[in-house]
Design a protein that fits this description.
Elements: H1 2-13, H2 17-26, H3 28-35, H4 43-60, H5 69-90
Helix pairs in contact: 1-2, 3-4
């Protein structure tokens, strides 16, 4: 789903309605799970609200700020280094 989702979001932001529908279809199992955890008379409203939220988030998401995998790894290394340094400081 990784790169596929990225490409679909890119297309959806460019106005491709089929890409937007495909993204919503990808999340249908999660939407259905949420539906069944609420009262039957509220399930349709909940589904509509979730789909609206997904659409808004897709259209507003800044793909330029998405880190690549190597940047993600660097962030993890920095986090680990900070934790190690913090733990060493407590034992001194």
């Amino acid at each position: 789903m990784g790169n596929d989702l990225f490409d679909l979001v890119l297309k959806a932001q460019a106005g491709d309605k089929e890409a937007l529908e495909e993204i919503i279809t990808m999340f249908t199992p999660v939407i259905n799970s949420a539906r069944y955890k609420t009262k039957p008379d509220r399930q349709d409203d909940l589904e509509q609200k979730i789909v609206e939220t997904i659409i808004k988030k897709i259209l507003m998401y800044d793909l330029a700020q998405t880190p690549d995998f190597s940047a993600f790894c660097r962030q993890l290394q920095e986090l680990q280094l900070n934790r190690t340094t913090s733990q060493e400081a407590r034992f001194e």
